[in-house]
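User: For documentation purposes, I need each entry recorded in a consistent format: the amino acid sequence on its own, followed directly by the corresponding structure tokens. There are two entries in this batch. Please keep commentary to a minimum and don't merge the entries.

Assistant: Recorded as requested. Entry 1:
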Amino acid sequence: MKKIAVVEDEPLMREELALMLRKAGYEVEEIREFDRVADQLEMLSPDLAVLDLNLPGVSGFQICREIKGRSSFPVLVLTSRDQMKDELHALELGADEYLTKPCRRERLLARVSNVLKRYEGRQNLLEGPGFLLDRQTYTVYVHNHSAVLPKNQGKLLETFLSQGDRTVTKEALCLAVWGTTEFIDENALQVNLTRLKKTMAGLGMTQKIIPVRGMGYRLAEGTEENQKL
């Protein structure tokens, strides 16, 4: 059963949406607290998020940006904002569909079904800027080509992608590669990061591994300074 997260602050609208989706055969998670929505969604890992833009605190635009920066599930925006500029902005941030309220039940369910079908088979794919990583085989798809990464490099890239633009600690990287943080020589981590950096450059990827002093590393676009390990 596909799981859908509903992010809507108006209780009656949220309950109506949840009931409609449950009757259509979906499992539904309702977001009722609007602090750290992106974190809640990441923990739920739904097959689809239905997202309102007019939320208390952080806007739906910011939530959409955060979701798309670190997760691979699709986002369907359902909002009362019917301006073209809002729709274009949401799509630029990575939204997969944009519907305005009020919306007919049949139309909403059809769009939900279409988005889910488009994402079938992509559960194992993590999306980065201009490339995809298959987390099962560690295959990178970039520039209409594909390459299988060595296991350690694949684990490192998977860890960076799962954290979006956030800094990843050295401990987290060691845990991802070796399953432990004990008895790991930091030079071993440096060697693997250097190899990944060379592999990414050889594939023509623009992202760089950026050291963050005293904290760890993060994946960023190549226009940033201090790109050397």
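Entry 2:
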Amino acid sequence: MNDLSETDGRFATTLARGLSVLRAFRPSDDGLGNAEIAERTGLPKSTVSRLTYTLHVLGYLTHARHGERYRPGPALLAMGNVAAASISFVEIAGPIMRRLADETRTLSLLAVRDRGRLVLTKAWRPSGVSSIWLEVGHRLPLSGSSSGHCFLAALSDDAATRVLQEASGDRGLSGERLAEIRREAYGQLLAQGFAITDPAEYFAPNIHAVSTPFFPRDLSEPVVFSCGATPADLTLSRMREEVGPKLRAAVRELESALGLPPAPLRR
């Protein structure tokens, strides 16, 4: 989420590689071995072995005994809690988004960018309703998701160009495709305050979602709030006529609670 290049002399390659090891973990994993981490990160196994050992010693990874698969450790959990507590809007958004989930019977989500993807950082499930399988930590593509298209449309031109450099090649995200996504989603945000990706373009056929951006004081780029459910439960007409307007109203309520004016889209 910054402008640093890996060719910049200030860029700490070893630190970046260590963070890529931590990013390799997914909520559904039952631990990862060095070989699996190497495959996911593209790093040599010998490099991964040194990094996982170091991260284990520092408490960012854990395993029960020698040869056991690595899992996120207590130091990583503590760091995540500190980060969440330091970003003021997350706690305030909780009751608003939980109420939205119950009213719309959808899974309400908060997504932020992690290099070339969006990562789900909060999920509010509707009470007593089965919802889609997306969990905190799941990564969404920028191309082929309502959250991704909404995020790209909310960026300035310069920021979108920088993001493209990190996401290039992800689901065919080229400069031409980026411009097409931004044009379509930007028009939707201007016209109705939320964006819906054409289901034919969606990365997973069993998900429908509607999204709207939020511009926090604490962060340098927008985040995205979304509501999602199965296509049977969340039809296009329901997204346009009911859930999308309620999502936009919920984000406006959050802006008001934080004393923020409705953020204009920037180009």
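Summary note for entry 2:
The CA atoms of residues 214 and 251 lie 7 Å apart.
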